[in-house]
């Protein structure tokens, strides 16, 4: 280490058991280091837990360099025998150095200022061969409502049955905030609209696997009085049989699947729900409706045929 004002490079003893930094009294005096007298002599306890004969009466402030770093710290004067400087706990805390006990090497960590890169990441474009289908890669296309089609979700009720009208379920503050956010976003997207329906199903929340809240409308009573759609579903064993010799498979992601299917015209009022923030009815198919599962295969068939 190089001490300011002293031409010779000095070696120091690192001692984690020393509560302060020490400098040899004779060394400090011979180099005319500026000394500061303590208000009262301070005793020193040695490794044998006994107080040393010599007390500390002076201290000095040293500025020195080690491994390219500059340090400024206080040393207390004490007669030392085998070294001129002892770097104790204060210096170890200051530097947080890395000591290799196998090689007896000391590595001082340097603080480096990090700056964000000013180089913008390369834009990820759509390959030329997919440009004709550019709309499916964006979000704007899926924010608009689909047109009504023959496979719209129908809600036909049994003769003489009226739609359900249930109480509003109590909610915690966090669930009420999630409910408000859900309703506002769906109203803005046109997926739900205000309702004056004579029915009103209560809503609640369930937790997703990732911990987020998912709104669920309690359609249990509505499903018991709904006439079930008997759309023919493909047999699973036949599908597997057709695939048994296949080696290459294609996975198609039907984005916003349920939101691609509208509720049949004139049926929306039957799926209306009540909540703290008002009375609403969905314009697109909802999870939990008994006829929802059979509407999805119809959408699949239409999409694949087209």
UniProtKB/TrEMBL annotation:
Matching PANTHER family, A to Z?
A: RIBONUCLEASE H, TRANSPOSON TY3-I GAG-POL POLYPROTEIN
Q: Which domain of life is it from?
A: Eukaryota
Q: Where is the Reverse transcriptase domain?
A: 213-294
> What organism is listed for this UniProt entry?
Thanatephorus cucumeris (strain AG1-IB / isolate 7/3/14) (Lettuce bottom rot fungus)
Q: Where are the transmembrane segments?
A: none
The name of this protein is Rhizoctonia solani AG1-IB WGS project CAOJ00000000 data, isolate 7/3/14, contig 09554
